[in-house]
Amino acid sequence: MTTSATAKAVRAKGDRTRQAILRAAVDVASEEGLEGLTIGRLATEMGMSKSGLFAHFGSKEELQLATVEAAREVFIEAVIHPSFESTRGLARLRRLCEVWLDYANGQVFRGGCFFFAASAEFDGRPGPVRDRVAAIMREWLTTLERTAREAQAAGELSRDVTPAQLAFEINALELGANWAFQLYGDARVFAQTREAILQRLRGLSAADAPQATRPRPKRSPRKTKAPEKKHVRG
Amino acid sequence: MTTSATAKAVRAKGDRTRQAILRAAVDVASEEGLEGLTIGRLATEMGMSKSGLFAHFGSKEELQLATVEAAREVFIEAVIHPSFESTRGLARLRRLCEVWLDYANGQVFRGGCFFFAASAEFDGRPGPVRDRVAAIMREWLTTLERTAREAQAAGELSRDVTPAQLAFEINALELGANWAFQLYGDARVFAQTREAILQRLRGLSAADAPQATRPRPKRSPRKTKAPEKKHVRG
DNA sequence: GCGTAAAACGAACGTTCGTGCTATATTGCC
DNA sequence: GGCAATATAGCACGAACGTTCGTTTTACGC
After folding, report:
1. What is the mean pLDDT of residues A198-225?
2. I need a labelling partner for B232 at 20 to 30 A (CA). Which of A73, A152, B49, B126 fits?
3. Which residue is nearest to nucleotide D29 (CA to C1')?
4. What is the pLDDT of residue A15?
C-alpha cells in the first residue's frame, strides 16, 4: 500500500477520529444546540483532550460547519435514499413524508430533527453556519417541490396547488410534528401528522375520479422502478 | 407594616425598573435565545450594572422565568385579546389565525415568535423554564382547540375533524410560517399561510350554506363548492 | 527498525459567564 | 427633614469557554 490507489480507501487515523468526533457532535448538537456543543464537553465524551480534539477543526465555527455537513450526510442516508427507491411522482412524495416521520420519530438524532433545531438556533445569527443550514433546508424544500411537480406532470396530483405551496405545507406539518414530539414526548403525533399529510394529498389527487379514499389510485402505467439518482450531492 | 391604600397602585421604582428590564429581555431572548440572554449584555443595554440588574431576580433562571412570563403577557395582549373581540366560533378561529400571523410578521418580538424560539431551545433541557414554556404553548393549543370545538357546536365547522387535530395543524402551519420568515426573510409566506389555513377551514365548513366571506379565485368555475369530506378521521 | 510527520496531550492564556458580598445612593413614609 | 427600606454600584470569586503553544506519543512509508 503505497500512496497509490488504496491511499484514498484507507484513511489516515486522523480522518477516522474526525469522523467519530462528528458522529458524536451531531448527536450533542441536536440536543443541546450547535452553540451548546462545547469543545470541552465533546472532548470528555470522546475520551480525549480538548486541544487534541480542537486541532482537528481549528476553530469552533469550523467544527460547527463540519457538524452540519455530517448531519446532512446522515439525513440523506436516512431520508433521501430510501425515498428515492420509490418511483418518482406521488408515490415518492408520500414516501418522503413517511420516511421523514420515521426519521424524526426514531432516534436518528437524539434531539429530533437536527436541521429544525439548528435553523431555529441560528436564524438570528448571521454567519456561514446560518447560511449553510438555510441552504440545506432549501435543498429539502426543493426536493419536496420537485417531487410534487413531477407528480403533477404525471397527472397524479391536481394542479390547483403550486408545488412550492405544497412543499411548504408538508414541511410545516413535519416541523409541527417534530416540535410537538420534542416538547411533549407523545409519539402519537407522528401518526396524526402522517394522516394529515396523506389526507391533504388525497384531497389533491387529480380530479377525474370521485373515487374512494383508501386504495392507491393507479392511474399511471405501473412502472416497477425508475431509479434516477439525480439528487443534490455536491 | 402600614400598608397604605395607594401602595398597590403606585408601584415602587424597583418594579418599574424590573418591568423595563423584562421588556428588553423579551426582545433579546427572542433573538438570541433565553440562554444567550446574558445578564451582562442586558445590563449594558439597560445602562446599569450587572449586579444591580441581577439583584432584581436573584438567579438567571428566575430572570428567564420572569422573561417567559412577560412574553406571555405580550402575547395575550397582541393575539388573544384582539381575537376575543370576535364572536366565538368560526369567526374567532379565523381571527386567531390572522392576528397570529400579523403578530409574527410585525415586530412584536425582534426575533419572531418568542415561544417557538423558546420551546425549540429548551425542548432538550429539563427544568422549570422548559415546563413553563410547554405549559404556555399548551394554553395556546387549548385555546385553538376550544375555539374549534365551539365552532363545531355552533354548526359552523364540520365534525369530520377533531378539534385537537385541527389545532395541531393550524399551529404547525404558523410554526412553519414563522420558521420560513426567520430563516429566509420573505414576508410573503404569511399571506400564503393565511390562505392555506383559510382554505383548510373552508374545506371543513359545515355542510349547509356556503357563507363565502371571501370569494376564492378559482380556475374551474364548474365546482361550486368543495365536496364534503367523506373521510372520517380516527 | 528508523525517521519523520501526524496526532494527541497538558498547561496556560484572556474572556465571559453567573453569582456572592459590601458599600453607597436613592426612594418613600412618618 | 429624618430615617428605614430599597435600589444600585463596585468588586471579586470560581468555573467554563475558545484558543494557543510546546511537548510527547503514535502511526506508517521507507
Report:
1. 59
2. A152
3. A2
4. 85
Note whether A176 contacts B: Cβ–Cβ < 8 A. Answer: yes
Report CA-CA distances (Å) from A106 to A99, A103, A110, B13, B160.
10, 5, 9, 52, 30
CB contact under 8 A, A35 and B31: no
Chain B: residue whose CA lies nearest to A185: B123
- What distance in Å separates the CA atoms of residue B133 and residue B80, rounded to the nearest whole number? 17
Whole-model pTM? Answer: 0.85
Tell me the C-alpha to C-alpha distance, in Å, between residue B14 and each of A95, A170, A195, A222, B40. 58, 48, 52, 74, 19
- Name which of B124, B179, B230 is nearest A111 (Cβ-Cβ): B124
Q: At what angle do helices B163-184 and A188-203 cross, to 10 degrees?
A: 80
Chain A, nearest residue to B220 by Cα:
A160
The string over A197-234, giving b where at least 16 C-beta atoms fall within 10 Å of a residue's C-beta and e elsewhere, is: bebbbebbbbeeeeeeeeeeeeeeeeeeeeeeeeeeee
Distance from CA(A68) to C1'(C15), angstroms, rounded: 27
Dist. CA A157–CA A165, nearest whole Å:
13
Residue A5 amino acid letter:
A
pLDDT, position B13: 63
B174-199 burial, b at 16+ Cβ within 10 Å, e below that, comes to: bbbbbbbbbbbeeeebbebbbebbbb
Alpha-carbon distance A207 to nearest alpha carbon in chain B (angstroms): 11
